[in-house]
Amino acid sequence: MTEDFVQTPEVQALLDRASGVESDAGDARLKAITRDLVEAIMKAIVKHDVSESEFWAAIKYFQDSGDEFGLIVPGVGLEHFMDLVMDARDAEAGRSGGTPRTIEGPLYVAGAPLVEGEANLTDDADDTDTLYMNGRVAGPDGEPVEGAILHVWHANSKGFYSHFDPTGTQSPFNNRRRIRIGPDGRYAFHSRMPSGYSVPPGGPTDRFMKALGRHGNRPAHVHFFVEAPGYRTLTTQINFGDDPFAGDDFAFATREGLLPVPNRQGDSAYIAFDFELQRAEVSDEEHFSARVRAEA
Ligand code: MBD
Ligand code: FE
Q1: Which residues are in the Catechol dioxygenase N-terminal domain (predicted)?
Q2: With pLDDT > 70 as the criterion, what percentage of the chain qualifies?
Q3: CA–CA gap between residue 95 and residue 116 (Å, rounded)
Q4: Which fold has domain 72-295?
Q5: Rounded to the nearest whole angstrom, what is the distance from the C-alpha of residue 4 to the centroid of ligand 2?
Q6: Whose CA is closest to atom 4 on ligand 1?
Q7: Does residue 50 surpass a pLDDT of 90?
Q8: What are the φ/ψ torsions at residue 81 (nearest 5 degrees)?
Q9: What is the residue with the minimal CA distance to atom 5 of ligand 1?
């Protein structure tokens, strides 16, 4: 049996009816996407000779792993793929320049304290080195960006994020801030050094990665959104260039230009990093994508 089986009139009619393309009601775009996705699954089933038992094991996997979908999506490369798609669309539209985007990941929390000046991100005790990070937020001509807000979030020295910490021991916004940037475009903050992240051991993502012969580790990293009136909101992160997983990130978030090596001096580590924003072409670009995010 070959994939041509999916092209038989019976299966094609099934796809038409199942995706609602024969009905005038409903959403045409949703119908078309549903039809293509279901057809792609059918082709994979035929191509790989998926048995009935394997099929139901896969369905059970999806049913059970809902809480970790936000990890599975970057783990299989789809979240990074969206960056590649957005980069390619930008290139087609003749847009380039600025700090590269890279994935948000599933661990942002809205509503972090809004602070000004040299900011401390860390509320909780954490016996590790101190990270000092500073730099500029500028536009395409090097102009300081006025009215910028830098959203920063990272893990603690155990690799756990506040709000998502399985040990339940972190304050709500530990290592999370929104920093209002002054008219000179300069920012500076310090915090307790993050460690790399690992997916929950034994969980759905971990089991999937192991079955693929992979792992679920990320290098130590710091996430950012940068938003400012008149500029395009940037989603990015820096990954520590000297981390053992800097070249082997399970989530594919590391990118050239986003891998600074911390300058480590005794109990302190320093990173200088400048952000360059693109100008917004439409006001929608000044805002975040419509992803549903945790709130606290
Ligand atoms: C993270 O901390 C992260 O940044 C991503 C992208 C995926 C899982 C955990
Ligand atoms: Fe992260």
Answers
A1: 27-94
A2: 100
A3: 32
A4: Protocatechuate 3,4-Dioxygenase, subunit A (2.60.130)
A5: 42
A6: 105
A7: yes
A8: -55, -40
A9: 105
